[in-house]
Write a structure and sequence with these properties.
It contains eleven helices and nine strands. The chain is of the alpha+beta class.
């Protein structure tokens, strides 16, 4: 019996019926709606906003949050599979869903008031309100404690000054979750589009995540009522808790990118004839593709176990770091190797490998660089903080 070349250890058999149904639905969406347009969108530097209503209709926005807020109430493994299948299309599509779900809807649910949840979450789940997450600042993202954006209390309001950088969805967003230093520690605020002094500027000339909106946010004496402050968290544990949610999904996403590259190169090397035989018939090509399949299999098992730990409530942030480090490195290496196997054709966006390779340059950097996650594991092993 032939094995599935993209699932050599039959990881799918370990999924529940509901999890398989979620994966199949998102896979169909990716195959039918994303892959047909994403190459052109990447070329044009355009986020395909026309897909947002369909993404919302599938229940992919805030999919792990309770149904009472208009969300799907799925488990963590299902959310991971959503990320895997979306990123099989493009990292930009997965990034949109990840930011909306894990970095915007999650903090409103986890740290917001019930009034904030009821006001924002149903419309965000329906794709009617888009969010962005303002944490990273221009001087660097790996040290969020060194935050310059500041919120000052003024009567019943807060006045916010500062800026944020590399913000996915920034110019699309109707609301921004903005983290700022206060006299009482770091706190989160809900800023609405159109507030006086709040502006967003899209970042151009990107060679990565071109089918995604990336922006800088600026705050010039933005006045925000205290009712727009997230009341149930203070300190870095707020934004870091959001990042753990998002990083979890990112451990799954690159698996999809790697599968897309391997799928493309398997077909290409069987059709490409060199020296009177298909490239796939050479030992060098088979060894390279076997190595890709090995690393994809390990990543699948790693993320599945991580998802089971998350669903059991026992997942540790350092475990997420290990999986993000491993799986992003796996995917970017595979994308580059596939680009090589495609030869000269591999440099064009008519093929997926170069697009995934370029996107993964961002994915391996955001939500904690590879080096940061290596140091997290080093601290876990030694008990010594080397940051």
């Amino acid at each position: 019996m032939a094995l599935n070349p993209y699932d050599l250890f039959d990881v799918r058999s370990l999924l529940s019926e509901e999890e398989r149904a979620v994966q199949d639905a998102v896979a169909r969406f990716t195959d039918e709606r994303v892959r047909s347009i994403i190459g052109d969108a990447f070329d044009q530097g355009r986020f395909p906003k026309e897909l947002v209503p369909e993404i919302a209709e599938l229940g992919l926005l805030g999919s792990s949050l309770p149904e009472k807020y208009g969300c799907a109430g799925l488990n963590a493994v299902s959310y991971g599979l959503i990320c895997q299948e979306l990123e099989r299309g493009d990292s930009g599509i997965r990034s949109f869903v990840s930011v909306q779900s894990s970095l915007c809807m999650y903090p409103i649910y986890a740290y917001g008031s019930e009034e904030q949840r009821e006001r924002w979450l149903p419309d965000m789940a329906a794709g009617k309100v888009i969010g962005c997450f303002g944490l990273t600042e221009p001087h660097g993202g790996s040290d969020p404690a060194n935050m310059k954006t500041h919120a000052r209390r003024d009567g019943d309001d807060w006045v916010i000054n500062g800026s944020k950088m590399w913000i996915t969805n920034g110019n699309l967003a109707d609301i921004a979750i903005v983290w700022a230093q206060t006299d009482d520690g770091i706190q989160g605020f809900l800023l609405e589009k159109g507030m006086a002094g709040f502006t967003a500027q899209e970042i151009k000339h990107k060679m990565s995540l071109r089918a995604s909106v990336t922006s800088a946010l600026f705050f010039d004496n933005v006045r925000v009522p205290d009712s727009s402050r997230l009341p149930n968290v203070k300190g870095l544990k707020g934004p870091l808790g959001c990042l753990t949610q998002a990083r979890y999904g990112i451990t799954w996403g690159p698996i999809g990118a790697a599968i897309a590259c391997l799928d493309e190169v398997l077909a290409y090397t069987k059709e490409r004839i060199l020296f009177d035989r298909p490239v796939a018939a050479t030992q060098s090509a088979q060894i390279k593709m076997a190595e890709m399949a090995r690393r994809i299999t390990l990543a699948q098992l790693l993320s599945l176990q991580l998802g089971r730990l998350k669903d059991a409530g026992t997942m540790a942030p350092s475990q997420v770091s290990l999986a993000k480090w491993n799986n992003c490195r796996m995917a970017i290496d595979i994308a580059r190797e596939c680009r090589d196997l495609l030869g000269g054709a591999g440099i064009t966006t008519e093929h997926a490998a170069i697009r995934h390779a370029l996107n993964l340059e961002s994915v391996i950097t955001y939500e904690g660089t590879e080096t940061v996650h290596q140091l997290v594991i080093g601290r876990e092993l030694t008990g010594i903080n080397a940051f």
